[in-house]
Write a structure and sequence with these properties.
By secondary structure, the protein is mainly alpha-helical. It is about 45% helix and about 0% strand.
């Protein structure tokens, strides 16, 4: 095997190793999870209608 053939074979092996490393690294990345739906509370939302005194659902009683 000539020196040129040996260098070409070594370069090919290095490139194949780099490609394999990138493929394994990409496969190990965790998949992004979907964003959970937001939950809104009526106690936090702005009321558009005035509520009678003592009829507050956020009062906790």
């Amino acid at each position: 095997m000539s020196r040129r053939t040996g260098l070409a074979a070594m370069a090919g092996l290095i490139c194949a190793g780099v490609v394999a490393f990138i493929a394994v690294s990409a496969a190990r990345e965790p998949q992004s999870q979907p964003t959970p739906p937001r939950v809104y509370s009526s106690c936090l939302a702005a009321d558009t209608k005035p509520m009678p005194v003592g009829d507050d659902p956020c009062d906790g009683s």
